[in-house]
Write a structure and sequence with these properties.
The protein is mainly α and 513 residues long. It has helices at 3-6, 9-22, 27-48, 68-83, 86-103, 106-117, 123-133, 140-155, 160-173, 184-197, 201-205, 213-239, 259-283, 308-326, 333-345, 348-367, 369-382, 388-403, 409-426, 431-444, 455-462, 471-499; strands at residues 51-53, 59-61. The chain crosses the membrane at residues 28-51, 71-101, 122-155, 161-180, 210-230, 264-284, 304-326, 347-364, 384-406, 413-431, 443-462, 474-498.
Length: 513
């Protein structure tokens, strides 16, 4: 029987999205086209007088990029738009360290040790779980776990894009969930408390930044199971058998760790422990320069969390060099420099993508088009007169829609919280509940937004295994995660609502007016 006839309606729909998406120009060309569209739209919006009033009562108008001032801006900012593109430095610096760990043989040996020690049926779940927990290290999961997932699956003879998708889903769609407190909790929590204070200052005084902590802990378990299911039952079968080549498979036995490799792994483990202790001395003591004397209740504001990129570089570099020396894959400093150079040579396409994406993102932000759309969308929803679950679902839909245009979670919540927290309080819903709705919708749509800053790097990683991968391929692969994560998250939310379980310490779902 023709395998095409076996494909269900949903799978055929994803195939259609992939075909349409991949008929679009190359991602580099597409980002340049997006930038051109923004320039033209800014001129149109300026001519039509598009404006909006923000929460502080200030008027935001479209900045015309085709005006004399706008044209001057585009020329003067071209270099800084590229060098200031958020993921560029993070990706390149981290990849320098990863390159040493990879080319010295450390990553390959570590993967073989993992394959031989962990039950294969748990590997997908471990990858999704690791992605979810990576939000502790801010955006580092995009750079570390996404390519690692592809390598891990390829080494096991599974489709590398399925591994990449599983890691990407955990890192991005599961960004709000964690077993620990992350930097996102105070970022969103402070905005929610401030918005609640406009209605009931006394209630706001009793709120805390851990208002969603219980819900997010439970979400880790739920999303790990959901992500594993989507990967193994939907994504991997749809991708089929991987027919490409994997560099690590050329005559390499992925099921046996040689004595020399074991010796190198033990040496690199000792190097990791020593490095961890030295880093801890910079963070844990009150005098530590990466703590800056902050008390325990303010530790999330410590410089440590802003220095994770160089710390990750060190954590890959030192064990990689030690492993290479022990296994004789690194004989001198020239070998280290050459391996770093070889790694950067493979990042050429991403650098080109970053230049194009950097221009587009900068133009879009400078034009104010995103803010105007987002404020208007919020206004439409607040004026719709919805109530109950209709308002809940409509609010989540609008958040997801806005997230396709504005990636920053805190930036969106900064203008949405003052609008929707009071509205929901008047309808009997607690501010803590409104924030949970926001976090769900904001997380689940990250993975299908081409405007998300790390979308380009994920495409670049995927193209290492399939040169034909485009925006359509990635979006069609990630849509099942968005759908399933949204459904199971809403179901869990209903369970919390109807059982009366608190969302966090002292955080109820309903607000007693």
């Amino acid at each position: 029987m023709d395998t095409a006839k076996k494909r269900g309606f949903f799978t055929k729909g994803l195939d259609g999205i992939e075909r349409v998406g991949n008929k679009l120009p190359h991602p580099v060309t597409l980002f340049f086209l997006f930038a051109a569209i923004v320039v033209l739209a800014s001129a149109l919006g300026s001519a039509l007088g598009w404006t909006v009033e923000n929460a502080e009562g200030e008027e935001i108008a479209v900045f015309n990029l085709l005006s004399s001032e706008g044209i001057l801006y585009m020329f003067e900012s071209a270099v800084t738009n590229f060098t200031g593109f958020a993921p560029l430095g993070t990706v390149l610096v981290t990849m320098l360290g990863i390159g040493i760990a990879e080319r010295s043989g450390l990553i390959s040996a570590a993967l073989k040790a993992l394959v031989t020690s962990v039950p294969k049926q748990l590997l997908t779940a471990a990858l999704v779980f690791g992605g979810i927990m990576s939000s502790m290290a801010a955006d580092a999961g995009y750079v570390v776990l996404t390519p690692l997932g592809a390598v891990l699956f390829a080494g096991l003879g599974r489709h590398p894009l399925a591994g990449l998708a599983a890691a990407f889903a955990g890192v991005s769609a599961g960004f709000s969930a964690n077993l620990l407190v992350t930097s996102l909790d105070p970022l969103l929590g402070d905005l929610t408390i401030a918005a609640a204070a406009t209605v009931n200052p006394a209630y706001a005084d009793g709120m805390n930044i851990l208002m969603n902590y219980y819900f997010m802990i439970a979400s880790v378990v739920l999303l790990t199971i959901a992500g594993t299911f989507v990967t193994e039952k939907i994504v991997e079968p749809r991708l089929g058998t991987y027919k490409g080549t994997y560099a690590g498979e050329e005559g390499e036995d992925m099921t046996t760790v040689s004595p020399e490799e074991k010796k190198g792994l033990w040496a690199s483990l000792i190097a990791i422990i020593v490095t961890s202790v030295l880093i801890a001395l910079l963070v844990v003591p009150s005098w530590g320069p990466l703590r800056a004397g902050l008390p325990n209740d303010e530790i999330l504001s410590a410089p440590f969390f802003q220095t994770l990129v160089p710390i990750l570089f060190i954590f890959f570099l030192i064990p990689g060099v030690v492993y290479g020396i022990v296994t004789k894959n690194i004989k001198n400093d020239t070998d280290v420099a050459n391996q770093m150079g070889d790694t950067m040579a493979t990042m050429g396409m991403y650098i080109v993508l970053a230049f194009a994406a950097g221009q587009f993102v900068a133009y879009f932000n400078t034009s104010n088009l995103g803010q105007i759309f987002a404020y208007n969308a919020a206004g439409w929803l607040s004026d719709a007169g919805l109530d109950g679950m209709l308002l809940v679902l409509a609010f989540m839909f609008v958040v997801g829609l806005i997230n396709l245009f504005i990636g920053s979670s805190s930036a969106k919540w900064a203008f949405m919280a003052p609008v929707f927290v009071p509205i929901m309080m008047k309808l009997g819903y607690a501010p803590e509940f409104t924030q949970v709705l926001y976090r769900i919708a904001d997380s689940t749509t990250n993975i299908i937004s081409p405007l998300m800053p790390y979308f380009a790097i994920v495409i670049a990683f995927a193209q290492k295994y399939d040169k034909k991968v485009g925006i359509g391929t990635l979006i069609s692969t990630m849509i099942p995660y968005t759908i399933v994560f949204s459904i199971v998250w809403v179901i869990m939310l209903l369970v919390f609502m109807y059982t009366g379980i608190d969302l966090g310490p002292g955080a109820n779902i309903f607000y007693d007016k």
